[in-house]
Specification:
- This protein has about 170 residues and is α/β, with parallel strands linked by helices.
- It has helices at about 5-20, 25-35, 45-55, 75-90, 110-115, 120-130, 145-160; strands at about 65-70, 95, 135-140, 165.
- The chain folds into 2 domains: about 5-55, no CATH class; about 65-165, 3-Layer(aba) Sandwich (Rossmann fold).
- It is built from 7 helices and 4 strands; from the N terminus they run αααβαβααβαβ.
- The longest helix has 16 residues, at about 5-20.
Amino acid sequence: MDALKPDMVDAVIDALVAAHGLGQEGGLQAALDLLREHGLEGGRQAIASLLAQIQSARLPFEPRPTVVCFCGSTRFTREMMLLMWDFAKRGIIALGWCVLPEGYFDGDGVHGAELEGCKEQLDSLHRRKIDLADQVLVLNIGGYIGESTRDEIAYAKSIGKPVAYLEPRTA
């Protein structure tokens, strides 16, 4: 076969990359089956060539790190930042809330998102972080779980994300 049909090239590459990138067996066979299904002859050489190109361009396979999303009160920002550092040193991606430099807002206990009128937007963004995460870790220091954190826990559970707690839960 001199050339693959243009609409088949993308499908074959997608099948190879998906199977090969995930370390699954049978990517070459799946691509061959796809070509045969569409009546293309000589597909084995074309796919072997594509596979060689993919393998030569591919970096060594490394499994995707675990992604954890922290949920908790902004009063625990210092603790969250220290946990993020610890998780990063262990190769775990940690997603948390936005951290601004000390003194950015005047006064203790000021919730910046409420002050700047962007709480809903940041809450929505944090739910997207939960979507991206493999699991959620609740920073329930001293047993405290605020209303926003309770909402995030409910959301995480509603989409089937495992939820763990930093401290043992009290009744």
